[in-house]
Amino acid sequence: MILAGGTGGAKLARGMLDVAGDDLVVVANTGDDVEVYGAHVSPDPDLCTFWLADRIDERGWGLQGDTFAVMDGLRELGVEVWFNLGDRDLAYGLRRAQLLAGGGRLTDALAELGGALGLRARVLPMSDAPVRTVVRSGDRELAFQEFMVRERAAPPIDDVSFPGLQDAAPPPEVLAAIAAARAIVIGPSNPIISIRPILSVPGMADALRAARAPVVAVSPFVGGRVVKGPTEPFMAWAGVAPDAGGIAECYAGLVDGLVADERAAGVGVPLLQTDTLMADAAARTRVAREVLRFAEGLTA
């Protein structure tokens, strides 16, 4: 089982599929979800789904070979297109919005859409109730996609909040997967905006602590830097160092081990130091295998 958000988490999930097979369960961050163009877009669950179904575009997001005729048409009509969606990507978002408007759960909507792509593993949302990541910059409150896409993650970060948490809970499928897992891996994702929303869902952290399986986190830092995304400024806002030690601090009291490509003293848990760069399929599988072997050693 893997907790994932962003490209790093999705890449490791794809490696895990080669190692764990169809039993793999991914719990994805839904704090990035956005309603746009009449569609309900779930960037992190869809990113994981596209990677796991081997349908990810070479850009690292969206569906392979997608077209953008609808976005081009909206621009011709004078619509501000700040969130660019491929035509088939938009179709998935429109179908998801339709299912949710009809009273369906996000869990079931993700299952239907994953099935349409031939997905073997399961991608589950952290909550069926809506939770949104909001970044405050000065006197402005920006939904996460507005901050990341429209503003290009440029404004200073003064606060991060997750409206909707008070009404959220892990879906029963997530709790069952945690209880049945042989190993639980926190992917090399941004710990503040990709993993913290998952862990903040009421009951999620308690379920992870109660799990029989070891919980292992993978640091997103490779060669002292994050491969992609604004992890450093969010960790600076949170007051933790942008390195493996800071990752260990983010997950203190929750994880039983840490995987990183750098030496890190005083992390408080067993450390596996290994090359965590996942530049191709072979590297993704290797990292997944090493992480699972490390977790199994903690169990022993």
UniProtKB/TrEMBL annotation:
Enzyme class (EC, first level): transferase
InterPro entries: CofD, CofD-like_dom_sf, FbiA/CofD
Ranges that cross the membrane: none
E.C. no: 2.7.8.28
Keywords: Magnesium, Transferase
Gene Ontology MF: a single term: LPPG:FO 2-phospho-L-lactate transferase activity
Family annotation (Pfam families): CofD
Gene3D superfamilies: CofD-like domain (1.10.8.240), CofD-like domains (3.40.50.10680)
The name this protein goes by in its record: 2-phospho-L-lactate transferase
Lineage, opening ranks: Bacteria, Bacillati, Actinomycetota, Thermoleophilia, Solirubrobacterales
